[in-house]
Write a structure and sequence with these properties.
Layout (H helix, E strand, L loop, with lengths): L2 E7 L3 E8 L4 E2 L4 E4 L6 H15 L5 E4 L6
Parallel strand pairs: 1-5
Antiparallel strand pairs: 1-2, 2-3, 2-4
Amino acid sequence: MTIRLEVDIGGTGITAAPVDLERGSLVDDRQYVATPRHATPAAVATTVAELVHGVGTAGPVGLGFPGVLN
């Protein structure tokens, strides 16, 4: 089983969950926190770090976040 912590950074919330990459399924429940009201890079990074430490999964982390593609 290959597990990676996946984090989705959204405009209203940040979600994290450990995912079994071989099965494509969640290993545990999703954890959710609100995106900081003033979502500066430092504030979002701090929030993500707290969330990652709270989930307690060691190893690689995959991040997804909104952005504009041209």
